[in-house]
Amino acid sequence: QVQLVESGGGLVQAGGSLRLSCVASGAIFFINDMGWYRQAPGKQRELVASITRGGITKYGDSVKGRFTISRDNAKGTVALQMNSLKPEDTAVYYCNARTVIDIWGQGTQLTVSS
What would the mean pLDDT of 1-9 be, rounded to a whole number? Predict the structure, then answer.
């Protein structure tokens, strides 16, 4: 079984940067893809970025060129570096780990003020 704990959310001004971190514990050797999703009030949860065990990345269109995902397989960690933040990036960000099922963290709030 895998558990995920996120950290790094908060309040930041537009144009600023923030880094989210997620640590997996438990059976981390079963994890395939890891990623970050977000959900804004009244909207569906959407993919922000994902990364395979081999390091292949995928980004949502709205964050391409601004966000960078990275992971450390040995440590079971995944991070999201967010630059040039915009008010529309405001959401709860969830860490995701894919084994035979999807594992989710508890979420961390990011608020970007204009």
Answer: 94
